Structures are given as C-alpha cells and as structure tokens.
From TrEMBL:
Species in which this protein is naturally found: Paracoccus nototheniae
Enzymatic reactions: a fatty acyl-[ACP] + S-adenosyl-L-methionine = an N-acyl-L-homoserine lactone + S-methyl-5'-thioadenosine + holo-[ACP] + H(+)
Enzyme class: transferase
Keywords: Autoinducer synthesis, Quorum sensing, S-adenosyl-L-methionine, Transferase
Full protein name: Acyl-homoserine-lactone synthase
Family from the record: Belongs to the autoinducer synthase family.
One Pfam family from the record: Autoind_synth
Record-listed E.C. numbers: 2.3.1.184
Phylogenetic lineage: Bacteria, Pseudomonadati, Pseudomonadota, Alphaproteobacteria, Rhodobacterales
Length: 209
C-alpha cells in the first residue's frame, strides 16, 4: 500500500537534489544501506504515524515479501531517504515452510493473508514473468517524489521486459496515474480495513523512449 505526506510543490521539488535509485541484491549491496533506511521509513510512517498493525523489529518494518528477489526503488534527498517502493515479479515464490508466498495481491486473493480481504480483485491475478507488483510505497517529501518513483519504476520495468504492473494502494493513486497520463484499470472494488481504504490497479508499462 502507499502512504504520502505532501510537503512541497513540484517546482520546489524539481529544484532539489533528489536521487531515485533501483536497488537489488546482490548487484547493489554497496547501496543496501538505502534499503535499510527505506525499511526504517516504512516503520516510521506505517507503524508509528498511521498505527498499522504490521510486524516490525526495532526500527525496521519488513515481512515475507522483503526477500532476496525483491527489488527496491528508493528516493533520497541529499543522502536522506524520503520515499521508496517495493517491486516483485509475480512468478516468483518465497518461503520453504508449509505456506509459500508469491506476491501480496495474489496471496490476499487466495486467503493466505488474513489482514487483507480476499475480494481485492474480481478474479485471482496470475503468476507471470511479465507482470510485476508494486507495494509498500511511501513518501514523506513532495508529492512529486511519488511521480519520480513511478517514472523510475516504469523505466526499470521496461528494461526488464515487463508488460504490466499491479499496484496496491489508496484510491487516490488513480488521480496520480491520470496526471502522468498512465492508463489505469481497476481490478477490484475499494476495500477497507483498520489500515484504511485501498484498491488494486493494473497499469501497462509505457514506452518513454
């Protein structure tokens, strides 16, 4: 899901020295401290501020979908992490125990995640190497940092050969996608739990070249 705390206008954000990076293991271990700071930011926003009942250890919020095959997109301002998102290719499996996990949206629809409703999507989404998922998007800087992150994600997924990305977030995401001229398809109804309202969207990966 996504949480945003807008503070500056785009004209202000554009003048700042923002850096948005794609970080994955093992290629980018020298930048892994940024992922660690992103997990801290998730805990600060989702647990401390929004009071979501999420697992956390000390000052980090993480879960089973934060695994070795997860890709992170992290935004920083002068070295301080101000936003980020988590990407997973939907054909990947993690976990070796009784329950194995694919990706959050699908697992919720299959009833694997008791904290999320099975009615997120009108039908169970597929596992496909050309479909990715965005979750745990959080931004504490300008609203336009969210747009910078989404543009970076789109560029990365295009290079990875992806066709489509699924996004679990606030219904307000639809307005942001429209502002980017990014066509969005709603895959299910607006759902509500103790964490707020959220919905699943499907977006094509656009050719920005």
């Amino acid at each position: 899901m996504v949480a945003m705390q807008p503070q500056r206008r785009f004209s202000d954000a554009a003048r700042e020295d923002y850096l948005v990076e794609v970080i994955r293991c093992p290629e980018d271990l020298d930048r892994w401290h940024l992922v660690n700071d992103y997990l801290k930011l998730r805990k600060q926003v989702f647990v401390d501020r929004l009071d979501w009942p999420l697992f956390h250890a000390e000052d980090l919020e993480f879960e089973q979908y934060d695994s070795f095959n997860t890709v992170y997109v992290v935004a920083s301002l002068n070295g301080e992490v101000v936003g980020g998102a988590r990407l997973r290719r939907t054909d990947q499996i993690s976990g070796t125990g009784h329950v194995q996990y694919s990706y959050m949206i699908r697992d919720a629809c299959l009833g694997v995640l008791p904290g999320l409703p099975q009615t997120l999507c009108n039908s169970v989404p597929p596992m496909d190497e050309r479909i990715w998922e965005i979750t745990r998007m959080v931004v504490t800087g300008s609203r336009d940092v969210s747009k910078m992150i989404l543009v970076k994600i789109n560029t990365f997924l295009g290079r990875e050969g992806a066709d489509t990305v699924l996004f679990l977030g606030s219904p307000a995401f639809l307005r942001m996608a429209n502002s980017l001229r990014w066509p969005v398809k709603q895959l299910g109804p607006v759902s509500t739990n103790s964490e707020g309202s959220f919905q699943v969207f499907e977006c094509p990966v656009r050719d920005l070249g």
